Structure formats: C-alpha cells, structure tokens
Amino acid sequence: MLQTTKIGIPSNQTGTSATVITRQQIQQMQPFSLTEVLTRVPGVDVVRNGYLGATSSIFMRGMNASHTLVLVDGVRMNDPISPDRTYSYLDQISPDAVERIEVLRGPQNSIFGSDAMGGVINIITRQGEPGKPTLYAKITAGSQGTVQEDIGLGGQYSDKLKSFLHITRQDVRGISAASNRYGINSFGTFYRNAEPDGYHNTTITARTEYTPLKNLTLDLSSLYTRSRFDLDSYGGYTGDDPNFTGTNRTLTLNGSSRLKLWGDRYEQITRLAFTDVRRENFNEPDALDSSKSHDRYRGKLLNFDFQNNFRLHRTNTLTTGLNVQHEWGDSYYNSLSIFGPFNSAAQLRSATNTAFYVQDRIQQWDRWFTTLGYRYDRHNRFGGHHNFRADSIYTVKRTGTSIKGSIGTGFKAPTLSQLYGTFGANPNLQPETSTGWDLGLEQALLGNKMQVGATLFQNQVRNLIDFRPTGLFSTAYTNVERARMQGLEAYITSQPYKCLQLRSSYTYTDTKDLGPSSTQGDALFRRPRNKASFNINYQPIKRLNINLDITHTGQRSDLDFFTFPARPVKLKSFTLINLAMELALTDHVSLYGRLVNFLDTPYETVKGYGNPRISAYGGLRWAL
User: Fold this and answer.
1) What total number of domains does the chain contain?
2) Which is nearest to 594 in space by CA: 621, 617, 612?
3) 131 neighbors 157 (Cβ within 8 angstroms)
4) Contact (Cβ atoms closer than 8 angstroms) between residue 391 and residue 425
5) For position 398, which CATH number holds?
6) pLDDT for residue 186 is more than 80
7) What is the mean pLDDT of the chain?
8) Could you list the residue range(s) of the whole structural domain that residue 135 is in?
9) Is 207 exposed, middle or buried (0-12, 13-18, 19+ CB in 10 A)?
10) 608 DSSP assignment
11) Cα angle: 619, vertex 622, 624; to 5 degrees
12) What are phi and psi of 227, to 5 degrees?
C-alpha cells in the first residue's frame, strides 16, 4: 500500500509513477546514506557538494530541487529558510532507521500543495513489529576514517502499543570537499586541495503507535539531528579552507489520530506537525584567506491537516481535507575582509497558506482505477491558486498488461529567503506554476517472474525562479519565463530463481531553458541526459547475501565558478560499481563488508567538488 497517497492505494492500482524501496533492499545494498539509495530510482538524480554530510540537491524528472517534497513519516522536511526551500541533508537519516521509501513522480500538488511540483519522496521510519521487543546494534568502519554506530530497540508491547527507537552516530574524517584533482591554479601557483572535510552527526528517530479503542489509533513520531561539518570556500582550484565549519540542528515533532466510524465507512485523520531548523556557518582567517564570516539561519514550519475519507461504495472513496501551513524564519550574515566590514540581517518574516482539497478514487471492474483531485490554495501574499490532478490505470489481467497515465498542475510561492533574505532577495517575484503529464505501459512476463515498464513524461514550468546576474557585480532571484523537461523512464525487474533478483532502470531526460535569449535552448544545469542502473542480488545459501550494484551517469551541464564570469562546462560521464556481502555467523550475529567505486573511477557530480575513489567498509550486526 502506498501510504503517500493518503488513502493507502496498492502500487499496481494507481496511474501515478511510483517506486517503493523496502528495508530488505536497503540492507542488501549496505548504503551509508539515503543519497546512494535514491540516486538509483528511475527519474531521480541526487547531486552533492562533496562527500558525506555535504548539502545535496534532488532533481526529479529534470525539475528543480525545490520542486521535490521530502517527507519523513508524512512530515514536511523542506527547510523553510533555505534559499529555495529544499531538503538538503539526506545524509542525516540513517538507512538502518528506514522501513521503506515511497517515491511518487510527477505533480502531486492536489494533495500536498507547494513543493510537490516534481514529485514526493516519503521516508517511512521503522515501527515496532509483532512479537517481543527486539534490540539490535551495528558498528561500521572503513575508508575516509569512517566510523558509524547504530542501535535500535522496539517491538509490539501489547495489542494496543508498539514503538521503535533508533539512534545513529557518524564520524567521518572525510576528503577535501574542493576536489584534490585540482593542483595548479590559473595564476601558475602550485596548490592542492588536500585538507579533509570531516562530518560528525547524531540522529535519533522515535515512533509510537497507541490504539486506546478499536476504532481509534494515535501515532507519535519525532526526529532529531545534530551535525557538525567542515566546508570549503568553493569547488575547484584553491577552494580549500581549513577553518570553514558549519552546524545543523533539525527537530521534527508529529502527532496524528485516525478515527474510523460506521463500519469503516468514514475515516478521519488529523495531523499536527512542527519542524524547527537551525544552521550556522563559521569561517575564520587562515594563511590563504584573511577574511572571516559568520552566518545563521533559523526556520520553523507548523503544518495542520484535517482529512476525511468517505467510503461511499466499495468502488468509490471520496476524500476531503483542510490544510494550513505557517512558516517563519530569519537570517544573519556578518563578515570582515579587505573590503571592510559587512553586516546584514533579515528580520523575522512569515507566510501562511490555507488550502482545501478534494479527491475521488473510482474503481471499476477490479481492473480500472482512476483518481481525480483538486486543491485550492490561498497564500497570504500571492492570493488564490487552483490546481488539479488526474491519474488512471487499466489492467488487462489475461495478458498482464497495464496502461497508465497522469496529468496535473502545480503552484509554488517564492520562499522567504528569495523574497526577504540576505543575498539576492527580490520582493517582486511571482509564484512558479507548472503542468506535467506522463503516459506509461507495464507488462508482466514469464508467469509474473519479470516485469517491464516504460513511461513518457513532460513538465513545463512558468515563472521559473533562478539566481542570475542582474549587473556586472550583482545577482538576484528572478523569474526566467519558462522551462521544459521531458523524457523517458524504463525499468525491468526479474526473479528467475528464488535466490536471484535482478533490477535495472534507464532514464532519458531532456531539459531546456526557454527563458531569455542568452540562455534559450540551453540544458538546465546538473541534470544528466542519460542515466542507468543495474542491481543483482544473489543469496546462494540462507546465511550469505551478495549484492552487485552498477550505476552509469551521462554527461551533464554545469558552471565553472572559478572563472569570471562563470563559464558553462560539461561534466564527464562515469560508471560506479559497488559490491556488498553479508554473512550470518549465527542467528544473532552477522558480518558484512562493502567495496565502493570498485573501478576507482574519478568523477564529479558538481563542478570542482570531490568524491571518494575506491573505498572499503565493513562491520558487525548483532540482533536479539
């Protein structure tokens, strides 16, 4: 059941392009971060400004990172005070704390509103399982001075109560964020980026479900992360900065109730969630740079959702809801350089969006499923906006053939930083709007042992907001008319034998800037035109699992900011091969190991920023 649909629709009964990643699949890959997991999903690409702990951007079907909504247990994680209101710290959530990940591609605004123009990623944390409470611990160590400890405790304590608590600690010496591949700068001076940029993070996730009455369920969840990381001034030549550090603290609290009446014909879901994000960066003088700076960002988001599901008939479910979001934040920047002191502070600003949504789920003949949705948003600054969405899937059961498609519109208001922030703020910005559609075909083969599918998609965005030059020495956020993203997603999954699973995908993405003549027709930055992945999981005996993972990323456009003005460049294509193995020594103890970038491939996902070469990790897992 896709929980992200809000009414629990089976993945094979929705016209939405969706991918579900299970806890078993995550454990087989042994990833250090969710970045490694999501970058293998069709239509999704994640780029990171350096190694573990660096800020990341999630591009879905070529849309901007700001158009991807990230949820954790249904709570919005997009940072209200980040420049484009994205969630940039995927590395903070341990893969071991995750039960499953649901990825919905295409506009999802009719239910989720702003931030969901490109799609939604819902990270669902582990919950207490039936049976006596369980305890597990895990320790991992390896290249780049990496040490990670995980501990989890949870279970179903009674018919009414179940819970799970997970704590993870990461300590990484790291590599230089500014890639050490750059050794001689353009002025002929020898300099190599060599100072490692470390990362230290603690994350706690907790979830409790209590059923005081047969028809009433209460769900409480929370996430707390606190991290400290080293930064570099920029990527490429001389970007190293040994005294540049940052901190990030995120707290989310979520409470929901689910009430069923009249023989489950009516269901009421009430959710109240709060997110608090605080970030600070400190740059002290050093031998290469005598300037110093300090910047601070604080953002909060309060989200209230009142949902009503009416099961009018076994073939029809009507959903109505009221959603209120209130966000506020401020920022501060102080610097001292050869040009003198500079101070800037953005006062506390806020925005409120109130929305009403309705969705109708129609089922015909157990093989045709259609969902129609409408949402009206009322923003306190930008007024009212109407958005709709429709998806449908028809399955020919005799042949195992499914035809599906969806179409929808989206709306996203400018962020607090874009309107009032310290750098490049523009109070005259207009909201972004979009229209997106897709059409796909899925086929089951070999007695349902193989599934293949392909989907065509297109998105068009109007009033796209971008950070662009407004003069010789000035830049600001501006609306850049239009952009178009279109392409093809394809996948094949197969399990020819019980011990062997094969998964592969391919995504072709063509992006075009349809804005001013100076950039018209150019590809949008950091979106690869071609991307493919292939995964083999082999379990020859019950106690041994072997996982081979291959990803290929094609060329992509980027900017080289070391030159002035910044010049467009092409990042080379690359292929990464990872190999993971796990051996159960006893019923309670497992030994595991992983080789990453097996071919020792040098590569960049962002111009000038480093990524690790061949690396090895291993550890022990203990469960009781």
Assistant:
1) 1
2) 617
3) no
4) no
5) 2.40.170.20
6) no
7) 91
8) 3-623
9) buried
10) T
11) 170
12) -135, 150
